[in-house]
Write a structure and sequence with these properties.
The complex is a heterodimer.
Chain A (H helix, E strand, L loop, with lengths): L3 E6 L8 H9 L6 H6 L8 E7 L6 E7 L8 H5 L5 E3 L5 E3 L9 H5 L6 E2 L24 E2 L5 H13 L12 H5 L5 E5 L6 H6 L4 E2 L11 E4 L3
Parallel strand pairs in A: 1-10
Antiparallel strand pairs in A: 1-8, 2-3, 4-5, 6-7, 9-10
Chain B lengths: L2 H10 L4 H4 L3 H27 L14 H12 L1 H12 L6 H25 L8 H4 L6 H34 L4 H7 L8 H34 L12 H28 L5 H32 L2 H11 L4 H20 L3 H24 L19 H21 L6 H23 L1 H4 L14 H24 L9
Classes of the chains: A alpha+beta, B mainly alpha.
Chain lengths: ~220, ~475
């Protein structure tokens, strides 16, 4: 079974936020709008975070695209009182929106802040463009990045039907597909010859808050 | 009951007075509370329809007033068990009559805590998932179990300490015979053997309640304290701190309940019981202060970035008013009020504090060297907001000595009640500061939050308080809140 993981090369990231938009489209995330965005009601599964280093005139803005880290020791799974957040057999951290009671304990426990809550019922200008592969989440439950699990399933089924193994790069997450700088790479970390496997061993590789022993599956390549 | 019967009862059983005599003020308060609860139901309707959108909670402040109050009320429930344990397990006779009021308080506090959890859930209609799908790796699931166990113990304590009196009331107030029979659950034996059996059961329950209480408050602390994601919470001291602040606030709550029910409901509570609880409070407040100090010192000395950000926010940032309210008005002032030091001690106490406070103010404006520069928290280069300093000076140098020197009413049980009420509010401030600032500041420097509760949230919190008060004053009319005197 592949060990799905992601590498994000910060040198290649232009902070265009196309990944954020592609993710919202792909995964049927409602748009909060300006007013609600200001009061912290956004839902972003893949968000480009910005931080300012230093002071004017030597200031520099750093950007960091942040999907769910799909930790191998996920604190969110640990704390969920009803088992709505689970570590799947293939290692992906999944969220069951039918089981979730909306206590938001997992959000509090996640050091990366990757989880989003449906503060109100999702509203779309039109349902015409919703992705039929991804269920819309109801009000009052937590949701998060799935590593585009529906794409993984589809590709796996196709490969199975054709009686072959998955090829490297066959599964692309929406953010990877759209990334203008080619900064995001997705694939099997266990395959030493896959792109993601090679990049994860790069000298610039680091993981977010590694000291918390969450063992994230997203590796960043530091700006050189 | 006719008028003659009432007169006779009043003469022969003055401790039944609150059950048969009800003044106009009572109905006024009852109507007021009902109105607040009604408005709360309306507000909840809104939250039910719109979701938690109507609250001020957001990303990244995922928890707000509801969880603050949940933690707070679980803590307040400690008082009942503490008094019951003193009365029935340690055999302190003078706390026996008030044990019932304390247990009733504990039961109501736990029920309010459960209401607050329900208010906080995004999908309250799925609460039963906690039973069917409970995952016991989660501290929240532990809490669900221990709250249940503790509630059962508190109810059993309440039942066995009230049963005999209910049987007596069946005879004294024949018009409510059916109600009392129902409340006794049909167990109406009051032979000496049965009463002795009650006593033994109470003792066993009170002993069992002590480890249960330790677990309850620890588990509530662990909901927060086991999370490595929140530097402000992730501390081994949190569980012991919760036990201490639960004891302090719980005791204070029992005192407030006693003073209020004596003043406004005419329940006969002996001065001695209130004074003794006040004395216990004097010894527990400094322990709480010590725990808070030990926690702060550890964080500040290490100066680790993420925890420092949380504590900066708490002590000098947006939550400074809450923090200083907790320390000064919630701990220091009640301590001095309860302790009632001799006048010269009070004066002596205020002089160095006055000098310190004025130096602080001076340093803030003039930046001249002074002996405090090397001292916490100034060594860190952080300064109190000026209004905090002014309040500090005013309080320590003027208000406090004035109160201590001039007022004699503070020496009465009402004074103890006021000090206890300050403690109860102070611990609410403490809970606010434990829950909220760590949510504002995260490990990653990116999403820094802010949180302003909406009116819906505040209304729902107040309405839940009103439910508690309502239950208390209604039950005060249903059965005797303190043990009836034996003739």
């Amino acid at each position: 079974m592949p060990r799905w993981g992601m590498v994000i090369d910060l040198d290649r990231c232009t902070a265009c936020q196309a990944c954020t938009v592609a993710c919202k489209e792909e995964n049927n995330q409602p748009v909060a709008g300006r007013e609600r965005s200001r009061s912290g009601r956004d839902i972003f599964w893949q968000q480009v975070l910005a931080t300012v280093e230093g002071d004017y005139p030597r200031a520099r803005v750093r950007f960091l695209p942040r999907p769910c880290q799909h930790c191998d020791a996920p604190p969110c799974v640990q704390v969920c009182p009803v088992g709505a957040t689970t570590k799947r057999e293939d290692g992906l951290v999944a969220q069951d929106s039918l089981r979730c009671i909306g206590c938001r304990y997992c959000m509090v426990a996640c050091p990366y802040g990757v989880r989003a809550f449906n503060w109100k019922a999702p509203a779309f200008e039109t349902t015409q463009y919703l992705n039929p592969d991804v269920p819309v989440r109801p009000v009052g439950v937590v949701e998060k990045c799935t590593f585009c699990i529906h794409r993984i399933e589809k590709a796996t089924q196709r490969a199975k039907a054709e009686g072959r193994a998955l090829r490297d790069g066959e599964v692309q997450t929406a953010c990877m597909q759209t990334c203008t700088g080619g900064a995001i790479v997705f694939g099997d970390l266990d395959d030493p010859n896959s792109r993601v496997g090679r990049l994860a061993r790069d000298r610039r590789a680091f993981r977010l808050l590694e000291e918390l022993a969450t063992h994230p599956r997203v590796t960043y390549l530091a700006e050189g | 009951m006719n008028r003659a019967d009432v007169m006779r009862l009043e003469r022969e059983h003055p401790d039944l007075l609150p059950l048969i005599r009800t003044g106009g003020l009572y109905y006024l308060i009852l109507a007021g509370l009902l109105a607040v609860v009604g408005y709360g139901l309306y507000a909840y309707g809104q939250q039910w329809r719109e979701g938690l959108e109507v609250t001020g909670m957001n990303t990244p402040v995922y928890w707000g007033l509801y969880i603050v109050n949940f933690v707070y009320f679980v803590g307040l429930s400690a008082g009942g068990i503490l008094v019951a344990a003193l009365a029935h397990a340690a055999g302190v006779e003078k706390f026996k009559p008030i044990g019932r009021i304390a247990e009733l308080g504990a039961i109501s506090c736990l029920i309010l805590a459960a209401i607050f959890i329900m208010l906080d859930l995004g999908r309250p209609e799925r609460w039963f998932h906690l039973i069917f799908y409970a995952r016991f790796a989660s501290p929240l699931a532990w809490d669900f179990v221990i709250v249940g166990v503790y509630l059962a113990i508190a109810m059993a304590l309440g039942y066995f300490s009230t049963r005999a009196d209910l049987v007596r009331c069946m005879a004294l107030l024949p018009s409510r015979r059916g109600l009392y029979r129902f409340l006794t659950l049909g167990y109406t034996d009051t032979s000496p053997a049965a009463v002795e059996r009650d006593r033994r059961v109470l003792r066993a329950l009170a002993i069992a309640s002590i480890p249960a209480a330790v677990m309850l408050h620890s588990v509530t602390a662990w909901i927060l304290g086991l999370l490595k994601a929140r530097p402000g919470w992730h501390s081994a001291l949190l569980a012991p701190l919760f036990i201490v602040s639960a004891s302090v606030s719980g005791l204070a709550m029992v005192i407030v309940a006693l003073v209020v029910s004596r003043r406004f409901l005419g329940v006969r509570v002996k001065d001695e019981a209130i004074q003794d609880l006040g004395r216990i409070l004097v010894f527990t407040i400094p322990v709480l202060g010590y725990f808070l100090f030990a926690e702060l010192l550890t964080v500040v000395y290490a100066g680790e970035q993420a925890s420092m950000a949380v504590f900066q926010e708490m002590m000098f940032g947006k939550y400074a008013p809450v923090f200083w309210f907790n320390v000064l008005l919630g701990l220091l002032l009640p301590l001095l009020l309860l302790w009632r030091p001799r006048r010269w001690v009070a004066v002596a106490f205020s002089i160095p504090l006055f000098i310190a406070a004025s130096l602080v103010a001076q340093q803030f404006r003039l930046a001249i060297p002074n002996p405090l520069v090397g001292i916490f928290p100034y060594a860190l280069g952080v300064f109190l907001p000026s209004w905090v300093e002014y309040t500090l000076i005013a309080l320590l140098a003027v208000v406090l000595p004035f109160l201590l020197l001039t007022t004699s009413w503070l020496r009465t049980t009402d004074g103890i009640g006021i000090a206890a009420a300050l403690v109860v509010l102070g611990v609410l401030a403490e809970r606010t500061n434990i829950v909220l600032p760590p949510l504002l500041k995260t490990w990653l420097p990116y999403p820094q939050g802010s949180y302003v509760p909406t009116s819906t949230e505040v209304v729902l919190v107040l309405a839940t308080y009103a439910v508690g008060a309502l239950a208390f004053i209604v039950l005060a009319k249903v059965f005797p809140l303190v043990e009836l005197e034996r003739e």
